[in-house]
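user: can you give me the structure for this one chain? tokens are fine.
assistant: on it. calling the predictor now.
[tool input]
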Amino acid sequence: MAMKVISADHAVAYGAKLSRVEVVPAFPITPQTLIVELLAELINDGELDAHFMPVESEHSAMSAAIGASAAGARTFTATSSQGLALMHEMLYAVPQNRLPIVMANVNRSLGAASGIWVEYNDSMPERESGWLQVYIEDNQEALDMIIQAYRIAEDRNVMLPIMVCLDGFVLSHTVERVDLPDQNLVDSFLPKFRPLHVLDPDEPVTMNPIAPPEYAMEMRYQLDRAIEGAKSVINAVDHEYSSLTSRSYGGLIDSYHLEDAEIALLTLGTVTSTARAVVDYLRAKGKKAGLIKLRFIRPFPAEELKLFVRDLKALGVFDRSLSFNGYGPVFTEVRNALYQEGIPITNHIAGLGGRDVSFKEALEMFQVIEKNAGNEKGMVCYWHGLRGGS
């Protein structure tokens, strides 16, 4: 085990190195650039035996990743914001062809108006593309999740791509202590990739053919079941990784002081750390507050979430993106899952465009949730930190 003080971008790059990725197609975009720059250095210096492919756009990066994975190579790429949007067309080819590509997406707002700071409106719309999606809280989780992502993606019962999402600049350019597991330990946890089918001139196969109506619905159904089936694999992989490193992230979903909680806030990403501090503050004042950390939005842990909220009097849902003329996308997912549970749920939108979500604003969220306890019609959207509104 080695310790480094590094940014989450570099933690992601070291996670890819420890995973022994073989092909890295890449196009730089802020704030993701540090990832592919470090990987290029590691390959150039002989520390990673992989092929680095600089390409002219993110569309080409994903196209090259598809080709490399179809040829049987463990493939990694990274992007952000407009780059992810440019990949949109090619994203849909990956899960339907069951290619276990791992991609880091450093969350950043989409223009216009253009910004380079964190917002989830780049990755949230892509949760319908068939990729699994996980959201990261800190730099250690960023490194560990890249390693876990390959183990999940390449499981024969999954064989799906994973998008590892991390907050732009809040994590990507902020350094923290990160423990790097030994290469031998990672090798024992993550064996060499063994693809089910490969593009091989000596044994020709057809991939991504036209699907006529006689087959298209069955293909969609099989993909839907594969995403649902990934839940058990995600939890099992987290448990096994914990036994090797003593670091567990809860698999699909985690909690903090929820055992006897009466009110709770559901978060994802770095706001989770701020919400933990608020829970500690409220607990010191005798309030029974708790926290639910949503890690995977796909697969969405609907049944698991019901167990987490069964004793709550009220729940709030944090969103760092917006479905215009409505609520945040995470709130919509949670409300649909808990529709029959009878618990009042409020939506809390904050941090858009990279605006800081302060301790004071997170505390305001809990105060709204507490006020809403017992109100069966309490499905209301609140904006926090908004000048001239509420």
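assistant: here you go. The first strand starts at residue 2 and ends at 7. Residues 30 and 116 are 7 Å apart (CA to CA).
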